[in-house]
Amino acid sequence: MDFLGQESFDTQIIFGVAVALLAIGAAVVYLKTTKKSKGCLDPENFKEFKLVKRTQLSHNVAKFTFELPTSTSVLGLPIGQHISCRGKDGQGEEVIKPYTPTTLDSDVGIFELVIKMYPQGRMSHHFREMSVGDYLAVKGPKGRFRYQPGQVRAFGMLAGGSGITPMFQVARAILESPNDKTKLHLIYANVTYEDILLKEELEGLATTYPDQFKVYYVLNQPPEVWDGGVGFVSKEMIQNHLPAPGPGVQILRCGPPPMNKAMAAHLEALGYSPDMLFQF
Ligand SMILES: Cc1cc2nc3c(=O)[nH]c(=O)nc-3n(C[C@H](O)[C@H](O)[C@H](O)COP(=O)(O)OP(=O)(O)OC[C@H]3O[C@@H](n4cnc5c(N)ncnc54)[C@H](O)[C@@H]3O)c2cc1C
User: Fold this and answer.
1) Model confidence at 32, in pLDDT bands (50, 70, 90)?
2) CA–CA dist 24, 259 (Å, integer)
3) Which CATH number fits domain 47-142: 3.40.50.410, 3.30.70.20, 1.10.540.10, 2.40.30.10?
4) How far apart, in whole angstroms, are the C-alpha atoms of residue 83 and residue 100?
């Protein structure tokens, strides 16, 4: 009896130790994930982030790299959302505009913005004047769109100029997630070939995920040799390159206001219902 009693006592100790170890493990994982997912943004107050690198990509486009508080910090921006950036225009007046980082929370320690600077643009002026060491005031997350894996079967995307950045963020998140099989069909419109933003990155995604991600470029002024679309994005281009209206399909659009308006009319005429459409 004694022997059996000792064995049962030992089993209880082993069981107790195992439960304690499991609880400690779970607590460590919980603390790590909650710390990681907390992020550096405040939806109510602007926070300052230091510009640590500025890379000119073309005559009017630059990539701005901002430092987060520590080398393991994440920005904490949900997929499909953007940030508000505050600056001063040429007259010294305050200006606030939305921007979507091209980095995800898998990129730790920094976040990056690819900015197209327009000659007369108010916030463009602020970014043009920014030098390494300067701070940018940022508030967020912002936006009505929030991506959940499996929310649709296929996204159609209509982007114009710098309107590519929200699409790029959603596309990267989906394609880099091995379990997310959502299909992506992007039509990307620009004036000239040189205006195409994130071209290498988009080509990289299209090459790596040929069955999941398709891009069709449209240019107003194409080069001599060009196999993409020419002119403005037409109804026919949408019919040929985006998923047809139906269950599990959503069309996202982001571009200059005249393009957004023209695309809304094309999509309605093609039979997409309002619940299938989203404008960033
Ligand atoms: C969700 C969202 C995310 C965005 N993300 C980015 C981003 O990552 N990078 C980025 O560069 N921009 C992005 N934008 C656009 C950005 O918010 C500003 O609209 C843009 O930087 C111009 O602001 P501005 O104050 O310099 O120009 P404004 O003072 O508003 O405009 C002045 C003039 O600039 C020209 N202009 C302005 N916008 C456009 C345009 N879209 N197309 C053609 N001409 C234009 C026009 O001539 C206009 O009259 C995003 C917009 C949205 C809605």
Assistant:
1) very low
2) 55
3) 2.40.30.10
4) 6
pLDDT attached to residue 30: 46
Q: Is the pLDDT of residue 11 over 90?
A: no
Question: Does 101 show up as a binding residue in the annotation?
Answer: no
The secondary element (H helix, E strand) that includes residue 255 is none
Q: What is the pLDDT of residues 162-201, one digit of tens each?
A: 999 999 999 999 999 999 999 999 999 999 999 999 999 9
CA distance 220 to 259: 12
**Domain spanning 154-279: CATH 3.40.50.80:** yes
Answer whether the bond into residue 141 is a cis peptide, omega within 30°.
yes
pLDDT at 35: 43
pLDDT computed for residue 205 by the predictor: 98
Q: Which two tokens stand for residue 153?
A: 């079967």
Domain segments of the chain: what residues?
Answer: 47-142, 154-279
Whole-angstrom distance, CA of residue 255 vs CA of residue 190: 10
Residues in contact with ligand 1 by the CB-under-6-Å rule are 82, 95, 97-100, 113-116, 118, 120-124, 161-162, 165-166, 254, 256, 280
CB 156 within 8 A of CB 250: yes
Active-site residue identified among 102, 125, 126, 254: 254
**What mean pLDDT do residues 228-241 have?**
98
* For ligand 1, mutation pick of 124, 157, 278 (most atoms within 8 Å of CB): 124
Q: Looking at the predicted structure, is the pLDDT value of residue 14 above 50?
A: yes
The answer to whether the beta carbons of residues 74 and 102 sit under 8 Å apart is: no
What is residue 38's predicted lDDT score, i.e. its pLDDT? Answer: 77
230 annotated as a binding-site residue: no
Q: What is the pTM of this model?
A: 0.86
Residue type for position 153: R
